[in-house]
Structures are given as structure tokens and as C-alpha cells.
Amino acid sequence: MDLELDETQRLVRDAARKFAEERIAPVAAELDRESRFPRELLRELAELGLYGVNIPEELGGAGAGVVAYALAMMEIAQKCASTAVTMAVSNMVAEVITAFGTEAQKRRHVPRITSGEYAAAAFALSEPESGSDAGSLRTTARRHGDRWVLDGQKQWITSGAHAGVTVVWARTGGPGTAGISAFLVEAGTPGLEVGRPEDKLGLCASNTVPLRFESCELPEDALLGEVGGGFSIAMMALDGGRIGISAQATGIGEAALAAATAYAGTRRQFGKPIGAFQAIQWMLADSRTELDAARLLCLRAATLKEAARPFSREASMAKLYASEAANRITARALQIHGGYGYVRDFPVERHLRDARVTTIYEGTSEVQRMVIARKVLEG
Ligand SMILES: Cc1cc2nc3c(=O)[nH]c(=O)nc-3n(C[C@H](O)[C@H](O)[C@H](O)COP(=O)(O)OP(=O)(O)OC[C@H]3O[C@@H](n4cnc5c(N)ncnc54)[C@H](O)[C@@H]3O)c2cc1C
Prior knowledge:
Blueprint: H1 7-34, H2 39-47, H3 66-79, H4 81-100, H5 103-114, E1 120-124, E2 140-144, E3 147-158, E4 163-171, E5 180-186, E6 192-194, E7 208-219, E8 223-224, H6 230-266, E9 268-269, E10 272-273, H7 278-306, H8 312-336, H9 348-356, H10 365-378
Parallel strand pairs: 1-4
Antiparallel strand pairs: 2-3, 3-7, 4-5, 5-8, 6-7, 9-10
Helix pairs in contact: 1-3, 3-4, 3-6, 3-7, 4-5, 4-6, 6-7, 6-8, 6-9, 7-8, 8-9, 8-10
The structure holds flavin-adenine dinucleotide (FAD).
């Protein structure tokens, strides 16, 4: 694997870093405290190309590839993990429509995502009774003349209240995963009801809502891909999405380690900076090592995807490792801050809260281990 970044990758990373430092960092704590979705900031982020990093330029994307996308995610997540998850899902949906949409679907939605005309895009797979076992979903889509009619509920949908377009998975008939299809649902479609935003532990400036579909009529061309082809679209999207979440977790971990390192250099006890104590040094050393491992796993998966080689196992390994590491690293950073880590005057409590969900969404750590083990056993 070539660890030297090319010029495009460096440019995207540096642009994301500059934007994160100048525009996001000053407001991140406030957005978190007020649970405020940063509509204007996201528009600026999209205008920089960060809603379509791996989308071809003719559809309004940056055309910069998967590695550049992962690097940009790390930079944004360092300053605001909520903004990063909104960015991650919008990129994922733009990629799904680019990969599986008809020419008309691509032209209608992808440039609206990449330009920021849509505040975000959303991905609606999970349901109240169907999480890890996504193949058991119950939302239905039935044919009615030349229309599709959706009925059912979705749960935990990131950006669901703000999305210009949401990819919705529903059962079109037939048992198991072969009976699942994907649909593009536009904001404001009659029969689509957005529920109350979740009151979350972390990622407070991201929007997470339930969606309800009641006799929600869609045009025939709302179908994405083939009838019955939805589940494999979801699984392919999640493989790519996991690269984004591993980058997000790595970014959160970087922020926590930077805060802990700075604090260890200034806080004095027993007449010395606490960074002079071996107990603190070992925590910093473990965190640095784990972060480098997380970054390498993430960039390996991104490199494979960019080269159009199989990357499913590698994406799950990156997501598993980076998310678990981010939880350890943010906990250590809080410990290094002592009592000051436990209050909102310092950023580490936010990093710890934000890291927590990374082992849960886009497949829990247990699900990642299932994916990895399956591939290991296949040989
Ligand atoms: C903030 C947030 C944002 C989200 N955004 C989205 C989104 O945009 N779109 C979307 O579709 N979903 C989204 N999700 C949903 C997320 O993907 C699910 O929460 C996740 O897949 C787990 O499903 P669940 O919560 O139903 O847990 P469950 O599947 O009920 O799992 C509960 C526990 O059981 C374990 N478990 C389940 N099955 C097994 C097994 N076979 N072996 C071992 N352990 C098992 C799990 O690992 C977990 O620890 C989001 C969730 C959150 C919290």
C-alpha cells in the first residue's frame, strides 16, 4: 500500500482541515449543547465538494476518490463528529444513487446532494424491530397501477428530517432478503411523516428521527435498481459506509488524544506536569499506537475500494478496530483530564459521548465480527 498521498488527496485533506479549523471548530461545542443541525455550515461544506468526494465531476462531485474521502472525514470528525456523520451519510447516498440509479435518477438527485441544495441525504434501512437483522425488515412496498405504495416505519434515520432524498428499503414480496427493494423518496412526499428527533447521548448536532410511511405513493421510477435487488444494494453501501465510520472514529480519537496531550503538558501535580508520570505517558503511547493502526486499516480499505478490489472484510476490520479504539482513547483522554474531563469546559467529554455510537451504527461491533469471521472461514 502506497502511504504517500497524491496531490488531489492532499488538496482535499487540506481543504477539509482548513474548513474544519476555521468554520467548524469555533461552533462545535455550541452546536452540541444546543442540539442544532448546522444547515448553513453543511451548505458550505458541500460547496467545498465534501458531500460528493468520491462522485464524478459530471454529477457535481469532487471526483477525488475513496482515500481522499476518508482523509476528509477524519479532518471533519476531529472538530465535529455530528457534522461528520451527516457528511458520511450524504456521501454514501450520493454513491448509492450514482452506482445503482438510472440516468434520470442520477441527474435528478446527485447534483442536488453534492451542491448542498439538499441539506443532506438519508439512508433508511433500520426499523423498530429490525436492526442487526436488517433482512427481517417489515416496511412494505406494493404496486398500485403505475405507482408504488409504501407502508411501515423506519427508526434512527440520520438527517431524516432534513434530507432532500432518502433511500428507503421495503419488502416488495418474496421471503427473506430476496424480497427487499430500494426506493428513492423525496422530501415532502405525502404519506411520509417525520417523527420527533431522538434525544441522544452524543452526536447531538446530527439529526436522528423515526420515519413513518402511510399509504405513501411513489412514482414507478422511484425504484432504485431491480425489484428484489435492494438488500445487496444496502450491503454494498454499508461496506463503503464503514470506511467512512472508521474515518470518523479515527478523527474523534485524534481530537481526544490532542486534547489529552496538551493537558498532560500543562497540568501540574506533585511539582511536575502530569505528562512526566509514566502512567500518563503509557496512556498517550497506547492511544497514539491504536490511532495509527486505525488510520492504516481505514486507508487500506479505502485503497482497495478505490482500486475496485474486494474490500468488505477490510472495511469491517477498519470499522471494528477504529470504533473500539476511539472508545478506549476518549476514555483515556477523559481520565488524563481528571475531574476537568468530566465537565463541559473541556472538549473530551463530547469526544467520549460522540465516540460511543461508532461501535453501534452501520453494523455493531458484533456484526462486524460476524462479517470478518465469515470471510476468515471462507478462506
Ligand atoms: C445515532 C444513530 C444513527 C443511526 N443512523 C442510521 C441511519 O441513518 N440509517 C439506518 O438505517 N440506521 C441507522 N441507525 C441504526 C443502527 O444501524 C442500528 O442501531 C444498528 O444496526 C443496531 O441495531 P439495533 O439498534 O436494532 O440493535 P439490535 O440489532 O437489536 O442489537 C442489540 C444488541 O444485540 C447484538 N446482536 C444482535 N444480533 C446479534 C448476533 N447475531 N450475534 C451477536 N450479537 C448480536 C448487537 O450487536 C447489539 O449489541 C442509527 C443508529 C443510531 C444510534
